[in-house]
Amino acid sequence: MRKEYDFSGGIRGKHCKAYRKSHAVRIRKNDGTVEKHYFTEIDGSVMLDPDIRGRFPDSQSVNKALREYIATH
């Protein structure tokens, strides 16, 4: 961060719940067009907390761990 950025009045996690519920990403292309992608929980996405996410390198490893858990419970 640059020293001129001042986040001292910010509130950590203020928009976290809304972001996890749904969000959109706009991608500006070189030809001037804009692509918009929507992400919601309905799409089957699952947001992992950082401490959990660090233990799984990809979706396959998460699914494998969940299947093993389901099989034993």
Lay out the secondary structure.
Elements: H1 16-21, E1 22-28, E2 34-40, H2 50-53, H3 59-72
Antiparallel strand pairs: 1-2
In a few lines, what is going on in this structure?
The chain is α+β, with helices and mostly antiparallel strands and 73 residues long. The chain has three helices and two strands, in the order αββαα.
Describe the structure.
The chain has 73 residues and is α+β, with helices and mostly antiparallel strands. The chain has one domain (16-72). Helix content is 33%, strand content 19%. It is built from three helices and two strands; from the N terminus they run H-E-E-H-H. It has helices at 16-21, 50-53, 59-72, and strands at residues 22-28, 34-40. Strands 1-2 form a two-stranded antiparallel ribbon. A hairpin with a 5-residue loop joins strand 1 (22-28) and strand 2 (34-40). The model has no long low-confidence stretch (mean pLDDT 87).
